[in-house]
Amino acid sequence: MENVTPLGGDVYEIDTRMAGFSGITAGYLILGDRPCLVETGTATSAPVVRDALAALGVGAGDLATVVVTHIHLDHAGGVGDIARMFPVAEIVVHEKGARHLVDPSRLMASAKMVWGDKLDVLFGSLAPTEAARIKALGDTGAIDLGNGRTLASHYSPGHAKHHVGLIDSLTGDLYVGDAAGVYMPETGDLRPATPPPDFDLETALGSISLFEALGPQRLLFSHYGPVDDVAGVLERSAEELRVWVDLTRQARSAGLDLDHAVAMVRDRTKERYAALRGADETAEHFELLSGAPSNVAGILHWLDRVDMPH
Questions:
Q1: What is the domain-level CATH number for residue 128?
Q2: Of 78, 137, 142, 182, which cross-links 290 as Cys (Cβ 3.0–4.6 Å)?
Q3: pLDDT, tens digit, for every residue of 231-244?
Q4: Contact 146, 32 (CB under 8 A)
């Protein structure tokens, strides 16, 4: 299938075709003794993911595990649908996200506030998953991939309080979710992902340091794809966070409202990203997902908490 790319080590990247776009959100299948899907993509992507798994020989009764790095809808919106399509799979998520998979009503209501009419087109609706099928992770955990191979989970908040990174004992692949930002393979650019309400600079930088300490061989970004330059990209990830926070803080000190703060930060960061200088279609789609408005709003939300007069 043209949306499935073998990455070696029995790992396959699946383009989930989010909202019909290519190259925006990836899921990954680890095809061991106990096949494991990392990230489901959105609800509307579930049939795309099911067909990709079928093409790789993984039928309804074959998928052992589904794990999501966090419960944002571009990563986990398909969990309920995928759980139905693969009835024996265990669903693995951090304990701070588990209840939202069982009862998605609050999550969907807040997503509706953020996305409005775009919600259905971009994400669809997260269907509930039976609590009995969910394994909730603490700060660390392990998923059995069969034959002594494990996927170890490490709590990595900062982008979201229910975020985990996952490292494969066989390949050294680290599934970074959104904790290291958004990688644009066309240009090698990396942009931060700092949406409200959970963004916290020190926590986010701590998670990037944790990722470095795990010594991964390769980073697998949900947005988007594999990266071999582990040290360079994680360093860039931390640098981007600091730049965006500094610029947003300046805008806030200057008394700018959200729209003007966004315009200023967007303008001052534009030169950092080759993709945004060209009229690149993929860049527009990334802007949708981790755009300046959401990033600046998340940083402002955090600044309001930390800069309050004590």
A1: 3.60.15.10
A2: 182
A3: 999 999 999 999 99
A4: yes
